[in-house]
Write a structure and sequence with these properties.
The complex is a heterodimer. Chain A is of the alpha+beta class. Helices cover about 25% and strands about 45% of the residues of chain A. In chain A, a hairpin with a 2-residue loop joins strand 5 (about 85-95) and strand 6. Chain B contains 3 helices and 7 strands, in the order βααββββββα. Classes of the chains: A alpha+beta, B alpha+beta.
Chain lengths: ~150, ~150
Amino acid sequence: MIERSTKHATFTIERTFAASPSRVFAAYADVKSKARWFGGPEDWGKSNLKLDFKVGGRESESGGPPGGPVHYYNAIYQDIVPDERIVLTYEMHLDKTRISVSLGTTEFKPAGAGTRLVYTEQAVFLDGHDDAGGREQGFGGLFDQLARFLEMQ
Amino acid sequence: MTTRSAQHGTIGLERRYKAAPARVFAAWAEPKARAQWDVPGRWVIAEQRFDFREGGRELKRFGPKDDPRFVADTLYLDIVSDRRIVFSYSMTSRGEPISISLTTVEIMPDGQGTKLLLTEQVAFLDGKDNAANREEGLASMLDKIGESLAA
């Protein structure tokens, strides 16, 4: 029998990009752009991102290290303000086990000619799969990839 | 033009009920039982659609009797019978966003009764609501669960 437990956590990451808010927002809204930066490390293989970018629309991606567990990401868009804000909820499965459910708010704010991005994640980790530190680190890596994608545009 | 903002907060509430965990869980799971308490204070539910299952979506229109202008759009994300419910809901007023919430309800045995823990993680949007106000509404609903179980 599974021992049921929950652990709630909140973290915030701020990054400044040289690109304008509309360009950074487009890197989230356009599936081809998002697939370029929103994924695991290179050895996880090619992105299989699916994205229906509208309120009520869904997004999914899966992948994992060779021979390791498969990470499944499934999201639903809750609120979208073009060039300014995206709010979504998502759940993560490791193979067949649901390990967390999260509420993610991404804010895009003008900063000179660039953009200050503020990402706030409010998460509940389920049944001992407590990994708030790893999650925050994972998003740090994603934002590094986003920065490289924006630079190459 | 609306000035956009997001304020994040976490609300934690605890209640003890003199009823078994299965009955407390049913107060959430069964439409007839939930309809007795699923709105704060003296507000009314003008329309409600139930779909209590993982992946199920529910819509509820509610508010003051003369102006039930709020819509809650709920999605069930994780359900463990008699033990846990995790759901998200967005709240709007005439289409304008108010908040997005991720709510965890934990139900556990407490002697002959039940302890319930509710944790709501919220993003309040564009200054339309705040944690103190939301906590008051949630506390009112949890008290009404106790009244409905005693009835």
